[in-house]
Fold:
Amino acid sequence: MRKTKIVCTIGPSSESLENTKKLIMAGMNVARLNFSHGDFDEHGGRIIAIRQACEELNKTVAILLDTKGPEIRTGKLEVEPIELVQDEYITLTTEEILGTKERLSITYTDLPNDVEPGSTILIDDGLIGLTVVEVQGTEIKCRIVNGGSIKSKKGVNVPGVAISLPGITEKDANDIVFGIEQGVDFIAASFVRKASDVLEIRELLEKHNAGHIQIISKIENQQGVDNLDEILEVSDGLMVARGDLGVEIPAEEVPLVQKRMIQKCNVAGKPVITATQMLDSMQRNPRPTRAEASDVANAIFDGTDAIMLSGETAAGKYPVESVLTMSRIAEKAESALPYQELYLKQRVAQQTTVTEAISQSVALQAQDLNAKAIITSTESGHTARMISKYRPESPIIAVTTEDRTSRRLALAWGVTPVKGRLVDSTDALFENAIEGGVKSGLVKEGDLVVITAGVPLGRSGSTNLIKVSQIPNNA
Structure:
């Protein structure tokens, strides 16, 4: 059983019901909807297909809405494309004009206030490099350091400069409200730079009675890296968004930032997604490069909860093959994980909650007894996530009556959610847990399992019981 979760971006290559079903059967755990592209009709149709596919296949797949985020872009051009020549000069302006090779408009009106002579400005994922020479009013005169061809509405990055863009744009707010109405499970917040950006989204969710939707903060620039601790504290998880991050900070620093982000999420017991260009060549080729296979495996060795496919499943020629390939690489990497070392690394000398203490004990017992599985009866999914934090070799089966909890656990490493029934006694609670374990297909008659649950029944966060049991004949 694969423990690392797979996030797939849904797009033209995968949006049909048939293709969505193929992705689920290949191993998709979370479907990502990229709101940088498409409209409500497109995304609404994709959500319908995902839900129908899950129902027909009796599978659980969460839906993640990825916001466009606050961003800077160039304006429209008079003629496309234009050629920018190295060592020539170009002026960026906040005025709305049709761009030429001499003057180019930008969408962010405060940029002249944020940059100074010597600042670097990158366009189109860093392909075009400019150095600021002079700032006057709404105009920024730049020398072209790296030239090239450019089209309209390309992304602009300003590495090392504290940008004063809003944390959430009007488009993002409208998209999030749409997501609330559609019942999405996660919001991936783009270009998060500080804790207040996350709290702004949290406030919007609570205003619409959707505080249950979890926020995954995408770290995509130096500000986000610098404020990582405060961002993680108010987020439900993080995404290592290596695309823009690799433009905003030197490429050689990205692997170190990735490891640091994953390690901090592991300690906090919060999910972390490693994303961007993991199997990028599979957009065009049926097999990955050796470097891509190593990239996926190393993210798992680092401790990531989930790995993500972007263009590979959204617009590539081999969406299903990409998921199958990623799944095979993940399983092989997981077979080489030093599980005992991972437990010792995560273990803390003093737990701050009963759930934390129980979770640590359960992981240790499962390891010592070589248990076939850990079964947890959970309302909110918190206990399952806390056990997952200790990276046990035994699979974690989370039995819950809540569909919402099942989908939320789609991002939790090593956790298989199973629908259970309502119970009215402790004995029935343990019976329900065993039934759920058998239903998952991960345990059978005679298998030794470690079960955890809580009393009083039905109260979230009440985990306080551990039981070691053998699956009975009549289960």
